Amino acid sequence: FQYAGETQWALKNINLDINPGDFVLLCGPSGSGKTTLLKMLKRELWPKGQILGHIEYGDINLQDISQKTSAQEIAMVLQHPESQIIMGNVRQELAFGLENLNYPTNLIRKRLADMSTYFGLADKMDFSVNILSGGQKQVLSLAGAMTMRPAVLLLDEPTSQLDPVAAQRFLDMVFRLNRETGITVIMSEHRVERVFANSDSVIILDSGVIK
Ligand code: ADP
Ligand code: MG
Predict the structure, then answer these.
(1) Which among 179, 153, 185, 155 is positioned nearest to 167, based on CA atoms?
(2) Could you give the 3-state DSSP secondary structure of residue 26?
(3) Are 147 and 100 spatial neighbours (Cβ–Cβ below 8 Å)?
(4) Other beta carbons within 10 Å of 16
(5) CA of residue 71 to ligand 1 center, whole Å
(6) Residues 1, 49: contact at Cβ < 8 Å?
(7) How far apart are CA 36 and CA 1, in angstroms?
(8) Rounded (5°) CA angle 142-203-147
(9) How many of the other CB atoms lie within 10 Å of CB of 128?
(10) Please, what is the end-to-end C-alpha distance for the chain in angstroms?
(11) Residue 177 contacts by C-beta under 8 Å, 6 or more apart in sequence?
(12) 114 CA to middle of ligand 1, Å?
């Protein structure tokens, strides 16, 4: 992949298979292409530029994935919770994705009850998102992404803004999700030592190339 207007390729000779249910750790120094690679896996996030080759999601060419399938099945949690959270309170934030896809109200209510319990947000449903800590906001982003019951969860350095305790708590939730639901997780992370033992495979990027 080459960003529009650039002469260098941000990603080069990427050839990679990820199995359903895998926990994949993506690491590499700043500027090595982690964010770019993660964005390549979600059609709506493709940056402007040139892609050579293709990305297959099951038997779908990602180029042709429908917006609905992508929204339902491929979830992404970004580095900065602020850039992801858009609603006023926790309940609205959790309901947002499902409402957008026109899920029936009773299903939304049931799904929110399940998610809020699983992620420890049940007593915070009416809280304004503004009063949440950074760690709680990131958990809310994760819970919001999971309301759709996606098959793939992409996380881009999700703990980089969190203190060590909140970071560990967040990572433990992601490990547990992968273990208990079988969701495929692809996560870039700079605190590699905390994630290594829980990963099925590790991708090391350097200047856009897999090492
Ligand atoms: P990482 O997430 O590992 O820090 P990035 O994927 O953000 O790396 O960046 C990979 C390379 O692509 C870097 O050289 C960066 O400067 C370049 N890059 C990132 N975003 C853009 C953009 N929007 N336009 C042009 N170049 C970009
Ligand atoms: Mg990045």
Answers:
(1) 155
(2) strand
(3) no
(4) 10
(5) 24
(6) yes
(7) 8
(8) 15
(9) 12
(10) 17
(11) 142, 146, 153, 183, 185
(12) 37
pTM given for the model: 0.95
Collapse the DSSP code of 128 into the 3-class scheme (helix H, G, I; strand E, B; otherwise coil) and give the result.
strand
- 79 pLDDT tier (thresholds 50, 70, 90): confident
d(CA 13, CA 31): 17
- In angstroms, the Cα distances linking 121 to 58, 92, 137 are 33, 13, 10
55 and 154 Cβ atoms separated by less than 8 Å: no
Distance (Å, whole) CA 139 – CA 119:
7
N residues, the chain: 211
Q: Which atom of ligand 1 is nearest to the CA of 47?
A: 23
What is the token pair recorded at 131? 């009063």
Q: Cα(24)–Cα(174) distance, rounded to whole angstroms?
A: 12
10 lines ligand 1 (CB under 6 A): yes
pLDDT tens digits, 116-153: 999 999 999 999 998 999 999 999 999 999 999 999 99
Distance between CA atoms of residues 151 and 72, nearest Å: 8
Within 8 A by CB and 6+ apart from 181, the residues are none
Using the mean position of ligand 1's atoms as its centre, give its distance from the Cα of residue 3 in Å: 8
> Exposed, middle or buried, 181 (CB in 10 Å: 0-12/13-18/19+)?
middle
